[in-house]
Amino acid sequence: SAVISQKPSRDICQRGTSLTIQCQVDSQVTMMFWYRQQPGQSLTLIATANQGSEATYESGFVIDKFPISRPNLTFSTLTVSNMSPEDSSIYLCSVLTSGGLDTGELFFGEGSRLTVL
Amino acid sequence: AQSVSQHNHHVILSEAASLELGCNYSYGGTVNLFWYVQYPGQHLQLLLKYFSGDPLVKGIKGFEAEFIKSKFSFNLRKPSVQWSDTAEYFCAVNARGYNKLIFGAGTRLAVHP
Asked: CA-nearest residue of chain B to A41?
């Protein structure tokens, strides 16, 4: 298993500003992901955070809007840039501790609830 | 593209009632299937998963799910719910060999004492 800590747990931000969310895992993990859960909707994968290289983004998400860092095997950040009210969501960090989804499971942090005014 | 449909967005039951939450997916290849649960104020956690073998999968807290390949379904069941089962339930699928998990919209279950 893995214990995932996200900071901040919630924040209220002004339009046009940027916010960085941190994800810390208590053990080394093979893969880290960032998901978004918009109000009343399901979880959508934003990107896979790759250690030491650029993140792999899903369709509809771009690096300029959601820059991601992963400097080591236990830590990652997601920045939501130039925020608008449409970015109000819960942002979730998730990890695979061994292998891939064919053999393991995805663990989730408690999420960071972001409200943009 | 893969997608997951959960038929019920909100379900209200009394304690001891039986539960069945529907989940259908669209994908022509081999998949892994998951049910996640999120209790109020807590993080998402795995309830059960299907990779291969017996299509009837048993998970934690008395939950089970049955994979019916011909119907592209993976419905979640529990014979007798408890108040503590109040939570949001998410069905998810990934194509075998890929690590992208696709989630359904979720079902909010409220169990009344």
From this structure: B105
